[in-house]
Each structure stands twice: as C-alpha cells, then as structure tokens.
Specification:
Rossmann fold; 50% helix; binds NADP nicotinamide-adenine-dinucleotide phosphate; alpha/beta
C-alpha cells in the first residue's frame, strides 16, 4: 500500500513542489486556502495514478485548523507524512507594523504548526511510525531586524522541532526542521520582501529545497539547511558574536 502525505500550503511554491515530488510514491492530502489551485494540482497528479484528497482550509481559522487536525487523527487512510509548510512573512520595523498582521503570522507560522504537529504526532505515535517536516527558515538562526516577528516564528519552529524530535526518538516518528534560504517562489512578492537584488548564488529553486528535505528524511537528519551557501551562512551566524550578526543583517537588508 502507498504511504500518504498531507502537505499544507500546497497551492504554490515549496508546498506544491513537495506535493509533486511526493506524488511519485505517496498518495496525498493537499491543504491551502485557494481551492481552485488545489483542484488543478490534484487533477494533474491523478493522471499519474496518485490518489489526491483536496482539503481547502484557512489554517488561521478555527474551522480550517480543526478540519486538518481531524484528518490527521483519522485512522482511515492514515497520514504517514505531514509537511507543515504553510506560512507567510512581513517586512518593516516592528514599531511601524500593523500588529494584527504580525499576530496573524504567529497564528499561522507557530500556532497552526504546533497544533498540526501535535495531531500528527499522537496519531503516528499510536501506529509507531511516521514523519513530520516543519518548514522553518535560515532566517530563524539569528535575529533579523526588518522582519523581526517572521524570523522569531522560524526560530521557534526550528527549536520546537528539534526538541520534539528528541522526545519522539524511540516512538518511530521522525521530525525534521527544514531551513531553506532564499527560494524562488511567490513568497517575496506576496510578502513584499525586497530581496530581488541579492545575487543569483544566494537563491535556490523549490525543487532543490524539497530534494534536500527528502534526502535528509531518508538519512534521519533533524535540521536540514539546503545548499552550500546557506550552510555557510548558518555556520557563520552560529560562530560570530550575536551583536555583530544582527548589525550586519540589519545593514544588509537596509542596503
Ligand atoms: N521562499 C523563500 O525564500 C522561503 C525561505 C525560507 C522559508 N520559507 C518558508 O517556506 C514555506 C513556504 O513558502 P513559499 O516560499 O512556498 O511561499 P508561497 O509561495 O507564498 O506559498 C505559501 C503557501 O502557504 C499557503 N498559506 C498562506 N496562508 C495560509 C493560510 N492562512 N491557511 C492555509 N494556507 C496558507 C499559501 O496558500 P493559499 O494562499 O492558497 O492559502 C501557499 O500555498 C513558508 O513557511 C515560508 O516561511 C520560504
């Protein structure tokens, strides 16, 4: 029997790429708000023989989140792999930010991810197998002035995932924090991140990111930073003094 993966934020970018890659050997449940995009994707993947359930949901709303939790808890057609990928970011100084939007980001990037991780972990733990990929970011390795709350949500995702992966070590459930750097998707346009000027070497495709994640899952890697440039950046931010790192990041983003 084929395994089944549930991917959030599957209507575009990294999530859609996960769905396409996983369709080779998984049946799928695809989640996002834009149902039409999900149905188009499902139609395409079904041609290749993949069973695809479309589950439109706004993960910032109680009804949407509860529906996905319920699907993860179901023992019928159980989910073997959860990819917690839906997320967004904001830019600008925190003092000038619309607080509602910042809190909405915490609801999606943190609260929804924690609730879905819990639902999946309990269901998978009962079966003694499964995997959860939480999509974090390179931004989570240091403070990022200019996108303070976004970077903090991703620091949460990485630390949370690492801790739970250790707790779950003997349960048969693996967890991974995937920490991509700049990835070509709609993310920067949707969220008004002015990063187009950064050199090509700093960018990866969504395919490269997803391939690194799936390879990391095979090898049991808990924190996956895709790409040499990103790994170098992560190492530099671990080794350098925090004061220097946050000042440099602020200067780079101010240009
Ligand atoms: N692109 C990058 O450079 C980059 C780097 C590091 C980390 N990441 C992380 O990677 C993940 C995916 O980002 P991406 O680059 O693929 O961005 P994207 O192209 O903007 O895709 C974001 C996805 O999240 C979904 N989503 C947003 N709000 C949602 C909500 N309230 N409920 C349900 N789904 C929602 C969107 O679908 P709908 O609009 O249809 O709901 C979309 O499918 C995010 O967690 C992001 O923080 C991205």
């Amino acid at each position: 029997m084929r395994s089944r993966a549930l991917v959030t934020g599957a209507s575009g970018g990294i999530g859609e790429t996960f769905a396409r890659r996983l369709a080779d050997d998984h049946d799928l449940v695809v989640v996002a708000r834009r149902a039409e995009r999900l149905h188009d994707l499902a139609g395409e993947l079904r041609v290749g023989g993949t069973d695809v359930e479309v589950l439109p949901a706004d993960l910032r709303r109680e009804d949407g989140l509860a529906a996905v939790e319920h699907r993860l808890a179901s023992t019928e057609r159980p989910v073997d792999l959860l990819v917690n990928n839906a997320g967004f970011g904001t830019t600008g100084t925190f003092a000038d930010a619309a607080l509602e939007r910042e809190l909405a980001m915490v609801e999606l990037n943190v609260v929804a991810l924690v609730r879905l991780t819990h639902a999946a972990l309990v269901a998978m733990g009962a079966r003694g197998r499964g995997a959860i990929v939480n999509v974090s970011s390179l931004a989570g390795f240091q403070a990022v002035p200019g996108t303070a709350v976004y970077a903090a949500t991703k620091a949460f995702v990485t630390n949370f995932t690492e801790a739970v992966s250790e707790e779950a070590r003997c349960s048969g459930v693996r967890l991974q924090a995937l920490c991509p750097g700049l990835t070509r998707t709609e993310f920067h346009e949707v969220n008004a991140f002015d990063v187009g000027w950064l050199p090509g070497v700093a960018w990866q495709s969504a395919e490269e990111v997803v391939d690194a994640s799936l390879a990391g899952l095979e090898r049991g890697r808990v924190v996956v930073v895709p790409g040499l440039v990103n790994r170098a950046a992560a190492t530099a931010s671990w080794l350098a003094p925090r004061t220097l790192v946050r000042r440099l990041v602020a200067t780079a983003l101010r240009r």
